[in-house]
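Journal club prep — side note

Before the paper discussion, L.F. wants everyone to see what a predicted structure for a comparable chain looks like in token form. Sequence:
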Amino acid sequence: MRRIVAHTEKKKDLNLPQGKIEQVTESAHLGSVISEDGSSLPDIKNRIQKTCGNMVSFRKYFGSKRVARWRKVHVLQAFFLPVVTYCSETWTLTAQAKNELDTFWNKQHRKCYGVTKRDRIEMDIIRKELNVTKLSDYVEERRWNYYGHVSRYPDSRPANFILRAGLDDQRAGRFATWKKQIDSNKAEASMFYEDYNDNLVRDKKKWAEVFKAVTEGRALLEETSSSEPSVSSAHP
């Protein structure tokens, strides 16, 4: 039976001479989960679940104290990072989606470091020691580079045409979209990268450098805000 994903108030199957088409809320296509509301969260949870299943046989490896930390990190990035980030270039990262990704990946980094939450070691320290980044930042970087890749296509290519297309009289909605988040990244780039302009997308190397500057700028802001002393209220 064929299936179709559509966002409607009432579920309605289609009966055609060629057969019945069932309306569903979610459907898997080429390894990705497509939901009726266009959210990336079901696909993200699906990728995390698949990665957890693949990591079961490596439980003793990551729990061993005889294996060096850097070896564990290399195995994690070589075998499991591609699984959890499959098709992540198309994800829209809401706050909940970022939390799902970072919570899962922080757990794996703690395994590589040889600690648990009970040890109360800050993730910033662990990531610095292991020379790794947040998974949500990594996904954003992949999405940024993918945007640059499609933008370098000839204007006649359908993918580039769709990327640049817009709707007349389109109202600004409150929901996060892929394009809105790319525009937000561009706004950050203008803050953290000197002489930023959209024409840099034509240079693959410079376009990648732009997002690295964004990541470093974010880290610097977080470090500055965390180091500032809190202002306590004065007692009478």
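L.F.'s comment for the group: Residues 46 and 219 are 29 Å apart (CA to CA). Keep this in mind when we get to the figures.
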